[in-house]
Amino acid sequence: MALGLFVQAQWLVANVAGRNTLSLNGSWAVIVDPFNVGESNWKPIWKDQHATGVHDFYEYAFDNAIGLQVPGDWNSQRNDLLYYEGTVWYKKIFQYQPAHGQLSFLCFGGANYIADVYCNGIKAGSHEGGFTPFQFEVTHLLKAGTNEVIVRVNNWRRVDGIPALNYDWWNYGGITRDVDLVTTPTNYIQDYFIQLKKNDTSHIAGWIQLAGNNGLHKVTIHIPELKVQYTTQTNATGRADIDFTAYPALWSPEHPRLYQVQITTATDTVTEAIGFRTIAVKGTEIVLNGKPIFLRGINIHEQIPQRAGRAYSTTDATMLLGWAKQLGCNFVRLTHYPHNEHMVRMADKMGILLWEEIPLWQGIQFSNPVILAKANRLLDEMIERDKNRSAIILWSLSNETTPSESRDTTLTAMAAHARALDPTRLITSAFNHVAYKNNTITIDDSLSKVLDVVGVNEYIGWYTPWPGPPDAMVWKNPFHKPLIMSEFGGEALYGHHGSKDTASSWSEEYQEQLYKDQVAMFKKIPFLCGTTPWVLADFRSPGRLQPLYQQGWNRKGLLSDKGYRKKAWYVIQKFYGEKENIAH
Ligand code: GCU
After folding, report:
1. How far apart are CA 118 and CA 96, in angstroms?
2. Which CATH architecture has domain 3-185?
3. 456 CA distance to ligand 1 centroid (A)?
4. Residue 336 CA: which ligand 1 atom is closest?
5. Is a pLDDT exceeding 50 seen at residue 3?
């Protein structure tokens, strides 16, 4: 069914958490609509009609409907929705009192995969993409007293989607992240970018963007602990570039120092905790605050294994990143999509560096011209949300895309787009096309030349047999870029013990030996700047069908689906312990 013209969401209000918000989290009434009839004219569920006359009747109703918790995927909330791919209609009632001189915005942390938002029976807009925020101004749609918001969420996979039809994680559908009604003054602080200048620890630079009646307005940035009181003026479009001297204590994993930064105009004030650090590459090294660093990482999917559902809260973020800390990590690759904002803000606080990526994963329809615009919009939404998070050092464009002219053209354009949005951070991508020739492994993906850092996914010991002794492997780096081994590992069912020599045993011993072999190889790669094992914890995946060992779960976790440590966990924990005090 034609979804009609997409009224694309825009980035209307930054730092939702720091704003005046009414949370719409909690139980929403829902109608499960497998054939998507609710979009038709003969059963327009978004109209939420009620029978009035004796001959009226409607074959749907939110009254007496089942409920779903928001935030949260629907698959893990009801057994009859575990495999569900289709439409669910959500409804929430809330009270609202309009006030003169105030704007109101409906702000969604994320909904997978397409969301159409109606406010009091009028369409506010739509959004495509399951892992980035979207916002609509609804001042004109709200009324005093009782209001209702209805959201249609559809998680069908799409050939022109990002991700596309097939991927190795569960297709969790629903309003999977927080929903807030935000109010601001009519003339308000819409957005801002406040970070250290590239390679400069004594200048804070960026910009402030006001919304409302554009024009020349005074803007002040106040950082009390740095005795900074910087005042400037916006231009006619409401924008002010900033650049002032400051000497902040630099944010790092060891000292994740955050500063309260307050931005003020005549009509609005917003405050945010921001860290300041520099990140760069120097030859084949990654340099944090001027010093080479080895990234002791782990891949994390946005899933709580014990709940077998999407992570979405501060509590969830604390647990997942706490596990990473226990492993000895200073770095996390958030796979394969931007995680909820609690995760990124928690990493800022806990001192965990981040790689963040959009879900341009394997079989993407690069020959379709819509893909570049869609991918760049997802980059916009990811970078707009997280550009002030010092923890993030790498924006990643893709995962395991197959080399082709259209792919290279698209990724090259995306790299330029990301750098234009954020000149301070590094650009990377994860590839699995490397050339194996006997004991020599060459990083030969031509896209390496447009990246600052190269990520290689290799599964030697699992999908690829060892060509020779692990410590005899010779890695070639013709593009002379820093290398992060962005995925490696193998499967084991927790508590299942057996041969360390046969992969099909799915034994903890086999996985443990695989990791020992990988570490032996890593020690011989001079340009290796980081490692992120695949993956922190077992996760649900529809393609993992082995009835004894997988049962719909990818078992490459260092932790089981209950959070229990497999033997391989200790191999990495030991490796990271050895690396912790050694500069790269
Ligand atoms: C790929 C992919 C992961 C996937 C993993 C696996 O490298 O990037 O998303 O889960 O391999 O096969 O387990």
Report:
1. 16
2. Sandwich (2.60)
3. 12
4. 9
5. no
